[in-house]
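INFO  loader      accepted 1 record
INFO  loader      residues=221
INFO  predictor   begin
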Amino acid sequence: MKHLNTAPLVRQVNLDAELDIHVAPVTTSDKVAFAFVKMLRFFADKFFATRYGHRAVVLETVAAVPGMVGGLWQHLKALRYIRDDEGWIRTLLEEAENERMHLMTFIKIADPNRFERMLIMITQLIFYNFYFWLYLFAPRTAHRVVAYFEEEAVFSYTQYLAEVDAGRHENVPAPQIAIDYWQLPQDARLRDVIIAVRADEAEHRDVNHDFVTVIDNKRAD
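INFO  predictor   done
INFO  writer      dumping tokens
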């Protein structure tokens, strides 16, 4: 087992991340992606309401899927065409790993019940298969779905932060896993975690919108 990479995961909080960015849907692909994400948002709002911690646990399970699926397909494509991946694989896998750390953090905060754990498994099963085939046949739409999903995530975490600041959610101590991962102070609280996660989501939003632009440029050449 000594060959395994057991180095601790660490990440810097991007305090310069722009939060108020929205790419308006233009093409049919964009509009389909936008409508799909808005539908997911509608059901999430109805089911979780203001239980933002529990919402984060379930939605981060979904958010951790696209990067792994995209990384897999980009890996296979690079092998198939015997060419460099231009950095896509590492970027997508790092996104998946980051979203997984979000999940591991919020599990410590929200402590999902048995029903929510079952919901996590069902949601992951359905979404993985959906996204797998979407990325195979329509990678542009797949990346736009993730970008719009992350736009909604930034908005949700902003709402969560407002609830904490208003005292409607207890500003509990940050879990040690979050302190270690984002290199937060030992006395960090929940609001510090939300700020860190929101910044990550803003980065993923921008990266996936940029991927769509790269795909469009390649098709135009």
